[in-house]
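Q: Here's a chain of 249 amino acids. Please give me its 3D structure as tokens.
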Amino acid sequence: MAGELWHLDRAGRRHEIEISDAGLGKRLVWRVDGEQIAERRTHDERVQLTPEEDGGGAVFVRLPRFLGPARRVTWLEEPAELAGAGVVPGGVDFRPEPGSRADRRERRMLHHPRLHTFLETGGAVLGVLLSLLVAWLLARVVIAIPWPDIPWPSIPWPDIRLPRIPWPDIDLPTIPWPDLALPAWLRWLLDNAKYVVPVIVAFAVARAEVRRRRRQEQLRRQAANGTENATENATANGGQEEGDSAPAP
């Protein structure tokens, strides 16, 4: 079967999400025990699948912005509202097909969280550097183009002068504000905020995703047995300090 496959065993039933290319977009199919219950074609980055019958929950899929595997496939008890940033809390994550790119990415998050954070942050840094390089190249190209000298017509606009209003001369008191000098590093951050902020956000998102994936390991095991209190137990065990490695599932 071609495409990208994600699996989840929940309460004795086998859920499967297949993601495949469909022209410029993606085709998503949700099957339960081999029977298709939902399908959708989309160009969106955040997608939600709902079965035709009510009460079957929903599946939230976060697709990559450009290339690569899906970033997240999550089963939800109830359909979620995807307005705004599309942040969907809770749910139980599907497991990617063993050996796939998504599976290698997830294992890297679980066993090497610091390496994953470094790679995600490095990707943000690379994106900033590439944007600066493209802007520099475009500026050089624009300067190098021999633009023709177009004689624009001169429009004789009328000389309209507004009457001068005699504003009163008010002598305002001088307030002795304190001379506050920001540190050099803080001034540099403020001057380069549009480049620094994406890197900080990428670091924070990577760390949060590592913690979330660790909680999901227990949720998936409990979902396979139909445990009702999976979320509470996983949350209690998910607050451990992250290290260079995590226990294998």
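Q: Can you summarize the key feature?
A: The first strand starts at residue 4 and ends at 10.
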